[in-house]
Design goal:
Helices cover 0% and strands 48% of the residues. It is mostly beta strands. Strands 2, 4, 5, 6, 9, 10 and 11 form a seven-stranded mixed sheet that branches. A four-stranded antiparallel sheet has the order 1-3-8-7, with no helix packed on it.
Length: 126
């Protein structure tokens, strides 16, 4: 069974840090770009960051540039999202998704991402 599982969410104070993990099972991530998305209550799901299948290409939403870093370890079949300087506006459920691709780049839109995790809650509050 093909599955993505996010972990690492939780409660953090403003200015704090978290590292989210996205682990794949049932398939290898080598041929997949991975995206991180988030959805806050009452808002649409938005792209946060993505990473190409080789890890060379990355992209970030303007709202997280300079604060979040995406990385991947294909030997562990896992992608990470390092989040620093967290703000209350970052509070959301974070999802990872996999996009099968022959290209080195990734996409920030939800289109094409065929596999999704169940999400992990990030709460930023003092």
């Amino acid at each position: 069974q093909l599955q993505l599982v996010e972990s690492g969410g939780g409660l953090v104070q403003p200015g704090g840090s978290l590292r989210l993990s996205c682990a794949a099972s049932g398939f290898t991530l080598d041929d997949f770009a991975i995206g991180w998305f988030r959805q806050a209550p009452g808002k649409e799901r938005e792209g946060v960051s993505c990473i190409g299948k080789s890890g060379i290409f990355t992209d970030y939403a303007d709202s997280v540039k300079g604060r979040f870093t995406i990385s991947r370890d294909n030997t562990k079949n896992t992608v990470y999202l390092h989040m620093n300087s967290l703000k209350p506006d970052d509070e959301a459920v974070y999802y990872c998704a996999a996009l099968f691709t022959i290209h080195a780049m990734c996409e920030m839109s939800r289109r094409g991402y065929g596999y999704w995790g169940q999400g992990t809650q990030v709460t930023v509050s003092s």
